[in-house]
Task: inverse folding
């Protein structure tokens, strides 16, 4: 469970990508350092969140071994990670009405920071922001961030009515806090997009497991 000074936060692992650069399939199910990427993501985020759900489309049974509730997009046409965020916000509003915040993370980022939720909340509160995102190596990672459940209707309008797809175009409409982590000795937001990335992830996993 997260630290007591962190507001209750539900985590959503976004696993809706089609992994075309890997020949299809679920990227989070690939194995690095003897464990699936998804196992590593779950282990990293479980202590920081008041529960985890998985956003994925298709047959949810393939994720059954991980024991997470699978929530599919409810906006048709695979419009991208914003649809997964919206599905998580809607699910939280229905099933966890006492939780006001959702932490989204890519399901293919095996080395997420152990202080991710705490630092995002700290920055959001300090800057009086409505949203917060992570950054490293001079690059923002908008898919990894904090989302206010109360914004779900505005997000739905942007997706369905405006056909908005890019996360940073939507977050630009709100006060946004950005929190930067060092990218050395390994970038905590490294994600495995290609077969070559899996080989690099194996090398990094040895460093991460030894830390």
Result:
């Amino acid at each position: 469970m997260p630290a007591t000074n962190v507001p209750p936060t539900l985590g959503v692992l976004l696993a809706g990508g089609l992994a075309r650069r890997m020949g299809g399939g679920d990227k989070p199910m690939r194995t690095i350092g003897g464990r699936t990427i998804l196992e590593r993501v779950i282990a990293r985020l479980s202590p920081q969140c008041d529960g985890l759900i998985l956003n994925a489309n298709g047959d949810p049974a393939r994720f059954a071994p991980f024991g997470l509730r699978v929530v599919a997009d409810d906006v048709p046409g695979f419009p991208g990670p914003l649809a997964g965020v919206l599905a998580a916000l809607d699910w939280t509003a229905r099933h966890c009405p006492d939780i006001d915040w959702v932490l989204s993370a890519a399901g293919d980022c095996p080395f997420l920071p152990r202080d991710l939720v705490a630092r995002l909340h700290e920055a959001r509160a300090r800057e009086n922001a409505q949203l917060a995102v992570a950054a490293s190596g001079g690059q923002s990672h908008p898919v990894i961030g904090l989302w206010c459940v109360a914004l779900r209707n505005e997000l739905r309008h942007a997706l369905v009515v405006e056909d908005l797809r890019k996360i940073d175009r939507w977050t630009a409409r709100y006060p946004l806090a950005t929190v930067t982590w060092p990218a050395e000795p390994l970038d905590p937001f490294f994600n495995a997009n290609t077969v070559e990335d899996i080989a690099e992830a194996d090398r990094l996993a040895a460093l991460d497991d030894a830390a």
